[in-house]
Amino acid sequence: MNCNRGFDLISRSRSHAWHLLVRILLFGVLGSCVEYKEGIVVELNHYVAGDSDESVEEPDTLRIDHSYLVVQSVELLPCENTAQVRHPWLESRYWLSHSKAYAHSEDLPTRIGAPAVIDLKSKKPILGGVFLPPPEHFCKVRVTVGPADWDAVGLPESVELVGRSASVKGRDDTLVFSFSSDESVTFDLTLPEPLNLNRHSREAEVWIQWPSRGHFENINLQNVELSQRTAEPPGTTFLQNAISHTSLGIVLRD
What we know:
By secondary structure, this protein is an alpha+beta fold. The chain contains 4 helices and 12 strands, in the order ααβββββββββββααβ. The protein has helices at residues 3-11, 16-30, 224-227, 234-244, and strands at 41-48, 63-78, 94-98, 111-112, 116-119, 126-131, 136-145, 166-171, 176-181, 183-197, 203-210, 247-253. Strands 2, 3, 4, 5, 7, 8, 9 and 10 form an 8-stranded antiparallel beta sheet that branches. A 4-stranded mixed beta sheet has the order 6-1-11-12, with no helix packed on it. Strand 8 (166-171) and strand 9 (176-181) form a beta hairpin.
């Protein structure tokens, strides 16, 4: 049967009973005409790497009271779109822009726009949200770290993070230091293998692993207050360090 003819017959069925009967009779015939609209469930989870990462040396006397960064949005990028290049910065895989806007961004089937706070001292996984993408091959994930709003997931009560993308406080034997950032950083990460979703895929997980070490490389903790007024404040360097040690993973569930 011609698909358009079948749908026209349904639309012209005035009687409710007749309309229902026609829908039942034509359902099997027209099934192949209906476009796929329901998304595949893909969970987004954030993890913090364990202390087993010894590739970065940090002073034994360093004690961190809190260490937070805020993920503003995460987007799945189809493989055919990953060739796009946008203002390469820091190893040509992400770029930096300054922004103080911190409202929720738009949620789309392939994009989660609700901010989530990552506690870099905690090993507890954080559910960042759920994608509902159509069948597609995805090769990269685009992440934006930026200022939190009032209802960001995991917003701590004891630390002022609204309007900030990062906040750090710590000490060692000789000093106490703290700094923050309101920068927005967008960067792309390549999946270890393509996330191949088809009409038969049930669900999957994409996880982002954030580092627990290496955040303070190239930061002069002895002069944090002075560094805040330089072209490269410690908050910006902190974000760059965290991003440069970030990795991705996927799990397909049949």
